[in-house]
Design brief:
The chain folds into two domains: 4-233 and 435-457, 3-Layer(aba) Sandwich (Aldehyde Dehydrogenase, Chain A, domain 1); 237-424, 3-Layer(aba) Sandwich (Aldehyde Dehydrogenase, Chain A, domain 2), CATH 3.40.309.10. Helix 2 (44-60) packs antiparallel against helix 4. The protein has helices spanning 22-40, 44-60, 62-73, 77-101, 139-150, 164-177, 194-199, 212-224, 247-259, 279-291, 311-326, 377-384, 400-409, 442-447, and strands spanning 4-7, 12-16, 105-106, 117-124, 127-131, 154-158, 184-186, 203-209, 228-232, 237-241, 269-275, 330-333, 348-351, 368-374, 389-390, 394-396, 416-417, 432-433, 436-437, 450-457. The chain is α/β, with parallel strands linked by helices and 458 residues long. Belongs to the aldehyde dehydrogenase family.
Length: 458
């Protein structure tokens, strides 16, 4: 895949970039090693000042950044602004709380281990390689970069080939805040150049957000070289609605949960599992609201759904829909590629799904919703847990006992009650099963790329 900015709304190639050669990769890796050594010796308070300064720099460039995101991957401009703002808030959160998350922990009874003092301390691993996707070009990276730098690590970013301008911006951002030269760098390289970097002894750990096949490949190479990894590999998240809830609020939230970022989000709700007594009314409301969404130019302030980021992604999504329709699924809304420029796909609702349809077990990465009718909570959980993914989930229930039951039975890294799945700097983010392992953000996220060292003193 060429390294290029292609406007998804028109299909026009706006700018192309040359991949770095071996000499440039080596130079950047060497610089990263030196930066990691410097950061390790830098007090965390100083790192926090640099992080705040980097956040200030992003703030001054916020509108230009938002327009760049929209041009590169097609998200509506209002959502692009929200992504930039989320990054700024995350940077400030990490700067303000890293010292708490990484504080030494004394053993309450050191005498039990024959010591006068004993404690644990967190120390950075070194250079961390990040392999990142295009759907949230700044946020996906920031939720790794901010905590990793605050912990004292250096970062190397291999971004998706269709968002090179976002990659280069991030590669320059932290230096603007005062971080040492090479503390965070972008690598414009092909996917084939990733494995040699993982194998390089100077790379201490790897994090990837991407497809399941890509994650397996990265994890296999890292395991062969005994490297720490964090994997976030997508999901097919359930949105469960039980009887007794506000169906207007539930259906409105469901629409937003499905089409946020043009439906291209790992934690977007994709499977809507509805209790029998409220199924007809919910689906009627949900389908009407999906049909009413405004599709168009993502630079238009009123646009709610823009184009998909790539032509291949749009084609793959349509194949899932056509497979389901051809096997008897009911298409309640949308369901066909429009015949106009750009990689648009209409908000689509499918019902009457059967296990032989690919969309039942595969991730639909775009504004396509699958609805399921179930009888009671046990069947709801069975359907929710039947995929190989387990990233996040949402449950709408008016009963506290029932809410607790769902929390205990859903196979997912998170459960959102009477809301929609979201990511934030304050909460750990990650999944189970084929959605991956490890966590980003929160106290757990900053510790993923640290060595937990036990200290014993006579």
């Amino acid at each position: 895949m060429p390294i290029a900015t292609i406007n998804p709304a028109t299909g026009e190639t706006l700018k192309t970039f040359q991949a770095y050669d071996d000499a440039e990769i080596e130079r950047r890796l060497t610089t990263a090693v030196d930066a990691a050594a410097a950061l390790r010796q830098t007090p965390i308070g100083q790192r926090a000042k640099w992080m705040h300064a980097a956040a200030d720099a992003m703030q001054t460039e916020a509108e230009d950044l938002a327009r760049m995101l929209t041009l590169e991957m097609g998200k509506p401009i209002t959502q692009a602004r929200a992504e930039v703002d989320k990054c700024i808030r995350s940077m400030r959160f990490e700067a303000d709380h890293a010292h708490e998350f990484l504080a030494d922990q004394p053993l309450s009874d050191p005498g039990a281990v024959g010591a006068s003092k004993a404690w644990t301390t967190w120390q950075p691993l070194g250079v961390v390689l990040a392999v990142m996707p295009w759907n949230f070009p700044l946020w996906q990276v920031m939720r790794f970069a901010a905590p990793a730098l605050m912990a004292g690590n250096a970062g190397l970013l291999k971004h998706a080939s269709n968002v090179p301008q976002a990659a280069l911006y991030l590669g320059s951002l932290f230096a603007k805040g005062g971080f040492p030269d090479g503390a965070f760098q972008a690598l414009l390289i092909s996917s084939s150049a990733v494995a040699p970097l993982i194998a390089d002894e100077r790379v201490a750990a790897i994090t990837i957000t991407g497809s399941e096949p890509a994650g397996r490949e990265v994890a296999t190479t890292a395991g062969r070289n005994i490297k720490k990894t964090v994997l976030e590999l997508g999901g097919s998240d359930p949105f469960i609605v039980m009887a007794g809830v506000d169906l207007d609020a539930a259906s409105s939230t469901a629409v937003h949960a499905r089409v946020q970022n043009n439906g291209q989000s790992c934690i977007a709700a994709k499977r809507f599992i509805i209790d029998e007594p409220v199924y007809e009314e919910f689906v009627e409301r949900f389908t009407a609201k999906m049909k009413a969404l405004r599709i168009g130019d993502p630079m238009d302030e009123s646009t709610e759904v823009g184009p998909l980021a790539t032509e291949s992604g749009r084609d793959e999504l349509d194949q899932l829909v056509q497979d389901a329709a051809g096997k008897g699924a009911e298409v309640l809304a949308g369901g066909a590629k429009p015949d106009n420029p750009g990689w648009f796909y209409p908000p689509t609702v499918l019902a009457g799904l059967t296990d032989d349809m690919r969309i039942v077990t595969e991730e639909a990465f775009g504004p396509v919703a699958s609805v399921y009718r179930v009888s009671g909570r046990e069947e709801a959980v069975r359907v929710a847990n039947q995929t190989s993914f387990g990233l996040s989930s949402a449950v709408w229930s008016a009963d506290a006992e029932e809410q607790a039951w769902f929390v205990g039975t859903l196979d997912a890294g998170a459960v959102f009650i009477n809301g929609m799945s979201e990511s934030s700097a304050q909460l750990p983010f990650g999944g189970v099963k084929n959605s991956g392992y490890g966590r980003e953000m929160g106290s757990a996220g900053i510790r993923e790329f640290c060595n937990l060292k036990a200290v014993w003193k006579a």
